[in-house]
Amino acid sequence: MDLEEVKQLLEISLSGNFTKQQQDTLGEWFDSADKAEFLIVLCWWEEMLEQRNDQIVVDAGLISRIEDGLNHIERPVIPFPIKEPKSYQKSFKMAWAIAASLFLILSAGLFYYYTSNSRPFDKRVSQSRVLNDIEPGGNKAILTLSDGTKIDLNDVHTGGVVANQEGIRIVKKEDGQLVYSMVGNSELNRLGLYNIIQTPLGGQYRVNLPDGTSVWLNAGSSLRYPVNFDGGERRVELIGEGYFEVAKDSEKPFRVQTRGQVVEVLGTHFNINSYEEEAFTKTSLLEGSVRIRSLINKRTIVLFPGQQAKHNDYTLEVKNVDVNEVAAWKDGFFVFSDESAETVMRKIARWYDLEVIYENNISNIDFSGSVTRYKNVSEIIKTLELTGLVHFKLDGRKLSVFAN
Fold it and tell me: Which end of the chain, N or C, is less packed with Cβ atoms under 10 Å?
């Protein structure tokens, strides 16, 4: 059962028409869900409860399942103030009791921390100053056609034709994604024409390539690809971060060229993080298998699901990771796993289009946890500040970071 089906069952549970079979199906999912999926569903659950009126009756069995799930995920080590629920009718009190418990976990993003000096939690009062606020990024991208024409996809209405080029039609669907399709049998589409889609800082976008492959681009990324995959391979070039769901074609391997490496697949799901400012290119495999070939030292390795390859000019190594956490950005979450404060701030800076300034040394601070990407930046920095290790000053698009 995928996450959208889980979401539908949660909505049914709040409608009063929750059957025993649906309850058991949802309960089985809660028993087997991994942490990243569980956090996504908890966030949906909280939002649903907030949107309902005080007449709803929440299924007691479902509440029990959620409570059991909460007992199995990592608890934050930072203290949260208990919020008193508002006065609601008895039928709604239990729902809000659960919502409150989720709020304590989700609003703070499950953040915990450690430092090289193992400093204790600092209970100082907030020192951060927010002189303005910045909304989260969204679906934004520029498409460059083979003739050099640039199209701002925000200016194209949903469902509209973006362009017709040499037998290829490009359409922006209602959900915002870009879809390529063949029109007729034009010989001109065999001339090796390329398009480039670029997301700005504060942008993301999804494109369906001519072969049916889906690619999600994170902020500050670009993808160069042919308008028709002719010949013996399907080759694209990525700068930044992209999540790929590759359409299977045993006769045409799909190859992604990034900084210093080529990733080759036949059909699979994987994530590549290859920003220039990061020390490593990281390739994480969710499904299938991929072969990675270093363009620098010519080494080749094969990844299997649950593995991540870290590659730079000197090393090519493999480790096991939670790949759902790695790809959580495309589902609307920042997820940090023992990441340095600098790495965390670079991710935030790309999504909110910020310039980050370090006012003192934060090199010994690491973060772990998750938080939604769809809150204003003030909410994100408040969450980080709960560790007691950092505070901020936001002035325009300049974010100053101070170690406490």
Answer: N
Collect all residues with Cβ–Cβ distance below 8 Å to 48 and sequence separation of at least 6: 10, 11, 14
CA-based max dimension of the chain: 69
- How many helices (H) and strands (E) are present in the chain, helices listed first? 8, 26
Same domain membership, residue 276 and residue 211 = yes
Which residue bears the tokens 């325009």?
396
Q: In whole angstroms, what is the distance from residue 11 CA to residue 62 CA?
A: 12
CB 333 within 8 A of CB 40: yes
Q: Which of 102-106, 319-323, 355-359 has the highest mean pLDDT?
A: 355-359
- Measured CA to CA in angstroms, residue 80 lies from 93, 243, 340, 383 at distances of 21, 34, 23, 11
Residue-wise pLDDT tens digits, 225-265: 988 887 789 999 999 999 999 999 888 999 999 998 999 99
| Reported pTM | 0.71
Let me know: does 226 contact 245? Beta carbons within 8 Å: no
Q: Are residues 20 and 101 in the same domain?
A: yes
- The H or E element spanning position 45 is helix 35-51
State the residue range of the domain holding 77. Answer: 3-107
166: closest CA among 249, 230, 97, 239?
230
